[in-house]
Amino acid sequence: MIDVLVIGGGNAALCAALMAREAGASVMVLESAPREWRGGNSQHTRNLRCMHDAPQDVLLEAYPEEEFWQDLLKVTGGITNEHLARVAIRHSATCRDWMRKHGVNFQPPLSGTLHLARTNAFFMGGGKALINAYYRSAEALGVDIRYDCTVDALELDGGRFVAARIGDTRIEARTCVLASGGFESNLAWLREAWGQNERGEWPADNFLIRGTRYNMGVLLRYMIDAGADIIGDPSQSHCVAIDARAPLYDGGICTRIDCVSLGVVVNRDAQRFYDEGEDFWPKRYAIWGRLTAMQPGQIAYSIIDAKAVGRFMPPVFPGTKANTLEELARAVGLDEAAFVDTIKQYNAACRIGTFDHTVLDDCHTEGVTPAKTHWARPIDTAPFYAYPVRPGITFTYLGLKVDEDATVHFGGQPSPNLFAAGEMMAGNVLGKGYTAGVGMTIGTAFGRIAGTSAAAAALNKNEGARREAA
């Protein structure tokens, strides 16, 4: 019988598999995707947010635990389990040497990501390289990896895991780690979670999925129905404003629109609706998907002028370009008079100080709602650009409640042999909001913890069986 069965094939799952194998357990990984699409959302990632008390190779200065915690507290609005959050934060200080041992290389942040030079360690080659490195290491260590294996049910005895089922196939294991992601690819479930708004729209009908098409939430739904303790709001997610021209699935990082803080954002009525300069973009980019989801038609337009060009990571699709504001409005289908009036009001409200996009500068607005609190400069230099954006769901926050050992609970009682990691339990730390790289922090920390816990539970049982046999 297998010691540790890991269900899932992304970062958290592979961290669990590697740790369990290093602990001496036999391990099988079941990945629902085919080999060429393996890795879940992790293949689209770039970096890991890391606590550090002094400069460390690719990380500048210091990013202590308390600052990391305060950053997380701010974006979640306090909807987080502080104990589990701090477990992940502390773990982020020590995991990179282990990652390197398994073939992950790091590099300094690229141009356009300099706000993260102090807080985030970037993977050389991105998430795809990280995933491939982990798979190579797992194979070398003898982990049994199986693709195209969608587990649709579990056999449970109370809170104890017995076996996983893939159709009529039954796979027994002494312990199990659930790391099969959220339900963001399940459009029907998203529609159910978001419901209908006051305008009679179904917002989720206009959502795009930034990541994998394979996170359908099958096991999450099964566990909810089986009475596992859950946490999180089903409508909350890592939800980014991405290019409205992006594909329905797997658009990844290149579809993100990163010029929001350098200009203004208007809805289809040509009205601004939120402070574009509230904070540094890495701390605020993940709120704009939800903000856009609340707008009519779930569509908005990020507007910049020539002064912003070269100051942000360019997306894969070029912006609509025009030499006048009137021409730009016509090109994207906005009411010309309303759009020009919005920009004129904003321009008149700008109080220009010393513009510096690397700090919270003193360029702000006065007398306009919503205010823009930093980086406010008039949009007055042709050519002008517009980028259409829609909500892009990366992963959902509804998940399984766990403890510091990554143990799944049923009615408040810990399972003896069932653990969870990654997006399937990220809602314990992320009740809402997001800050760049923290998803990989959670997945790496609790993946490694879950693998260690599962191996310990399995090997202890093995020891008990051997003693009984003796």
Automatic annotation (TrEMBL):
One GO molecular-function entry: oxidoreductase activity
Signal sequence region: none
Keyword check for Transmembrane: no
Keywords, comma-separated and alphabetical: FAD, Flavoprotein, Oxidoreductase
Cofactor: FAD
Ranges for domain FAD-dependent oxidoreductase 2 FAD-binding: 3-429
A Pfam family this chain is assigned to: FAD_binding_2
Top-level division of the source organism's lineage: Bacteria
Protein name listed in UniProt: Tricarballylate dehydrogenase
UniProt organism field: Pigmentiphaga litoralis
